[in-house]
Design brief:
nine-stranded mixed beta sheet; single chain; elongated; mainly beta; 13 helices
């Protein structure tokens, strides 16, 4: 939107205003208005001769020594001169027969179809109309000739000087910037005064003229487009209004025509008095112009804005600028009027707005008294005076716009501050606090004071007022506000002082800006010292929840946050705030903590005891390895200078078991009442798994343990329902530690079986299980109850008697035997046929090389297992079954008989009571059990042994001797065979 000045428009001089009722009949628009205006300007028309115009335009006739009136085109700056059209030259106003100036017809007389001879000095008519004639330089007049006025292109500047223009081979006359508006309005007048309203064929005679676009011809003049543009480009000034008034001739009445009683014409140019008539008559359509002030207009075209002025008490008003904006393609006219106390050079009626968008800046002021403070108000009204409308809010339907001019008469303002109290602050940090700046009163009575930054650098305490790119301006809507005071205290202790602000006022004449300062106080302390351990700084901890089956109860672990005293002591250490925690890692969602929920309202005071305890929780939901880093945000207490402290890190780890596959070394902790039935079970190669907690693991599915895997049972129970290995592989090592326990309900192939001191393991009854271990050890007080099953210990001697006790595996069995009670530490049986005074069965132990006659590396099958001569064999069998084949036979008698007279020991040689010697006690066992035995133990079930007693009744003694005899005979036969 282009900006535009008012060109040569001037606010009307009231002396040149038309009589009040002169245009009362000027109603309607278009041809109706043109007709009504024709009737108005034709009434009371006094036709003057062409000769009279020589004196009317000039300074009058003195040729006969009598002064006549005239002065229609008087130079306002020289009463002896007149101003010529086109070049605006100021020349002597006396007529000198056309030498200095002559008479220019703005509508060429040739285009009125009149010749020079016809238009003589005595001629009266259209060519002698005073509004048709202008004084002109003869040469310029001749150059202009009969050319029409033009041309104006909407996108070009017509220039400021007069002269000929050419458009497509046609010449036009440019009157020059000073006269373009005037001659356009003169042509509009001619086409109105010399109109025959009753003759529709306009442009056909010099009493029925018409204005056209383009090249003029007889009775038709142009260019209309150019004339319309020039009318709005160059508004009416008082020079034009003056000659309009002089041609009219009246100075308030129509009786004496005092202004020009000799040459008055008695009518007026309505387009000078009312520029708004131009578009209504010649514009060719409804007007779409809209005028507004401020940001935008309402739907009816109304708008409003406010401008503000300020002056010191007893001072002098200034001015301020605001904008009046015209939108729409069409031009228009407007009146700008104001209340009596508004001052503006832009006031005036009939002001033009050119085509297209225009923004006009106007300066406004007030002339009210400044003797007292307070608000002074005036208003300006903008009225779009066009007579046609293109719709709501446009043209004549454009509602008025209001500019409110507010003027404040003010006195000096005082700004107060509050003490900047830092309170407890942290040393070494940039800390801030606030001061409240306030000032009573409002803009009606006080100046606007802007408080900026500090007036000097920081003081000895490191305190300064923080500067601001934009200051705080105290005014009617802002009477109080805060400003930041900053410090960096290097030492502890009390701090007091004051700082000054930079203060500026409005720059009003006579203003006296008052100083502003703020006092401050503070006590400095050290930073808080967060730690996960009391006394000793510790920034991180970790906890391992181990393996937890999915769906089991959540696991928890506690940790404590402390605030250790700084070197300055507890009372000079800031309190600690725990602000929350963030959790990252694969365990997010399953691993949580209650840091936020458990934060106390008050900060944690520094001290060597006490702290805040929190809980980390692992709730396994989806199988897999889970880790989470709990980053605990901590900070100084909320005091000036308090900042975030180095965060604490609490790491949690665990593995949610969706299936019993253990990929990494760790532990599983089962709580009271928890039983984990595994289904398929796997400890991967090289992985060490520890069983913790009093809960139970039931291994119920096939096992696929990896090489060098291990399981340590330190608490609770593990029940092996399946084999941890196979006849081809023994990958798993099992360690049982007190108070843990292991139960084997299936044959086991183990790399190592170790039962630590005080721990227990057992094999469930059924006579169908073999514990095969590459290595085997038991601690003090440990027990292994094999019930009615068997055991193979690889590459291990069965153990011999050292003179006082058995060693090795035999020593463990002998310890468990405990003089026949089978309740000692070591390898035991809980079978009733071996305990409670019963001696039918027992646990036997022998080297595979003895039992099977193998060399150290020879192999053979034994109880479904392949063994070598280096293995130790353990079996629940009949007491007396020396060769562990499950029955007492002659072979067993052969073994005891062979060793009875020697110093040999061991079960295989007949020491069935593990006392280190072979004697009658051992014969008592074998002889007593021989007739009492049932089927071989290898296929025996516990129920088939029920009711058998180890000591025969007296009635059976004879039988025993018979058996003994048979046994002895068999032994002797064997001896012979051996011989």
């Amino acid at each position: 939107m282009a900006a535009s000045a008012r060109a040569d428009y001037e606010a009307p001089n009231a002396a040149y205003a038309p009589p009040t009722a002169y245009y009362n009949a000027a109603s309607g628009t278009g041809f109706t208005l043109r007709t009504n205006l024709h009737n108005i300007v034709s009434a009371n028309f006094t036709s003057r001769s062409y000769g009279d115009s020589r004196y009317a335009m000039g300074t009058g006739d003195t040729s006969n020594g009598v002064f006549t009136s005239g002065n229609e085109f008087l130079d306002p700056n020289n009463s002896s001169n007149i101003l010529l059209v086109y070049n605006r030259a100021s020349v002597d106003g006396q007529w000198d027969n056309g030498i200095t100036w002559n008479r220019e017809h703005v509508w060429p007389k040739n285009l009125l179809n009149l010749t020079s001879s016809q238009v003589s000095n005595t001629y009266k008519g259209v060519a002698s109309d005073a509004f048709e004639l202008r004084p002109a330089n003869p040469t310029i007049n001749s150059t202009r000739g009969d050319n029409g006025y033009g041309f104006y292109l909407s996108n070009s500047n017509p220039g400021t000087t007069y002269g000929l223009n050419s458009n497509n081979g046609t010449q036009y006359w440019n009157p020059g910037a000073a006269d373009r508006g005037e001659v356009s309005r003169a042509i509009f007048y001619m086409a109105t005064r010399w109109l025959d309203p009753l003759n529709a064929s306009r442009g056909t005679s010099n009493t029925n003229l018409e204005i056209v676009n383009g090249v003029p011809s007889d009775y038709n003049f142009g260019d209309l487009n150019s004339l319309l543009h020039w009318n709005y480009m160059h508004g009416v000034d008082n020079y034009e209004r003056r000659y309009n008034q002089y041609i009219y001739g009246s100075s308030g009445n129509l009786t004496d025509h005092a202004l020009n009683h000799d040459y008055y014409q008695g009518n007026r140019n309505p387009f000078i008095d009312h520029p708004e008539y131009v578009w209504a008559v010649f514009g060719g359509g409804n007007n779409n112009a809209q005028i507004h002030v401020g940001g935008s207009a309402a739907s009816d075209g109304s708008s409003a804005t406010t401008v503000n002025l300020r002056v010191m008490k007893n001072g002098t008003w200034g001015t301020t600028n605001t904008s009046v904006v015209k939108t729409g393609a069409n031009p228009t006219t407007y009146d700008l009027t104001g209340t009596s106390n508004v001052v503006s050079a832009a006031l005036g009626v009939g002001q033009p707005f050119d085509y297209n968008g225009v923004t006009r800046s106007i300066a406004v002021g007030l002339n009210d008294s400044t003797a007292t403070t307070g608000l002074k108000t005036g208003t300006l009204t903008v009225n779009n005076t066009d007579l046609t409308t293109g719709g709501a809010g446009l043209g004549s339907a454009d509602a008025n716009d209001t500019i409110t001019v507010n003027g404040q008469v003010v006195d000096n303002r005082v700004v107060n501050t509050t003490t900047a109290n830092f309170g407890r602050v942290v040393i070494g940090a940039n800390v801030t606090t606030g001061t409240t700046l306030s000032s009573p009163g409002d803009d009606d009575h006080n100046t606007r004071v802007t408080v900026n930054g500090n007036a000097s650098a920081s003081d000895s305490n490191g305190v300064f007022i923080v500067g601001a790119t934009s200051g705080m301006t105290f005014n009617g809507t802002f009477t109080s506000g805060g400003r930041t005071v900053q410090a960096n205290f290097a030492t502890t202790g009390g701090k007091v002082g004051s700082r000054s602000f930079n203060v500026s006022g409005e720059g009003l004449t006579g203003e006296n800006v008052q100083p502003v300062s703020v006092g401050y106080s503070a006590t400095a302390v050290d930073h808080a010292q967060p730690s996960l351990a009391v006394g000793t700084p510790q920034a991180s901890q970790s906890v391992d929840f181990g393996y937890v089956p999915v769906g089991f109860a959540a696991r928890t672990a506690g940790f404590t946050v402390y605030n250790n005293p700084s070197s300055s002591g507890e009372t000079l250490t800031a309190g600690l705030d725990v602000d929350g925690s963030t959790i990252t890692g694969a365990g997010v969602g399953e691993m949580t903590d209650n840091v936020v929920a458990s934060n106390p309202a008050s900060p944690l005071a520094a001290g060597t005891s006490g702290g805040w305890t929190y809980t980390a929780t692992f709730t396994p939901a989806i199988g897999g390895d889970k880790t989470a880093t709990h980053t605990i945000a901590v900070s100084d207490e909320n005091i000036p200078g308090g900042v975030a402290r180095p965060s604490l890190g609490f790491t949690t780890a665990g593995y949610a078991l969706a299936s019993a596959a253990f990929p990494a070394s760790g532990f599983i902790d089962l709580y009271t009442g928890e039983t984990y039935s595994t289904g398929a079970f796997e400890i991967q190669a090289g992985v060490a798994l520890e069983k913790r907690g009093v809960g139970t693991i039931n291994i119920t599915g096939p096992q696929n343990n990896g090489a060098n895997s291990s399981l340590t049972i330190n608490n609770g129970a593990v029940n092996f329902g399946t084999d941890a290995g196979s006849a081809l592989a023994s990958p798993l090592s099992v360690t049982v530690g007190a108070p843990g326990a292991a139960s084997f309900a299936s044959t086991q192939h183990l790399n190592n079986l170790q039962i630590n001191a005080g721990a227990n393991a057992s094999v469930t009854a059924g006579n169908d299980k073999t514990i095969v271990a590459n290595q085997f050890a038991m601690g003090s007080g440990a027990r292994l109850d094999i019930s009615d099953n068997r055991m193979v210990v690889r590459n291990t001697a069965a153990g011999s008697f050292s003179g006082s006790s058995y060693a090795g595996v035999a020593g463990l069995v002998a310890s468990g035997y405990n003089t026949g009670n089978w309740d000692g530490p070591g390898i035991i049986t809980s079978q009733s046929n071996a305990t409670g005074g019963n001696t039918l069965t027992a646990i036997g132990v022998a080297a595979a090389s003895d039992v099977l006659g193998l060399g150290p590396t020879d192999t053979a099958a034994w109880e479904g297992e392949t063994v070598t001569g280096s293995d130790a064999l353990v079996k629940y069998t009949y007491a007396g079954d020396a060769n562990l084949d499950g029955a007492i036979t002659g072979d067993d008698y052969f073994q005891i008989d062979s060793a009875a007279s020697t110093s040999l020991s061991g079960w295989f040689n007949g020491d069935f009571n593990y006392d280190g010697v072979i004697n009658g006690d051992d014969y008592f066992l074998i002889d007593g059990n021989f007739p009492a035995q049932g089927p071989p133990v290898a296929i025996l079930t516990p129920s088939s042994l029920g009711g058998v007693v180890s000591v025969p009744e007296p009635a059976a003694i004879g039988v025993m001797f018979a058996v003994a005899g048979t046994s002895l005979l068999r032994r002797r036969r064997r001896e012979r065979r051996a011989a």
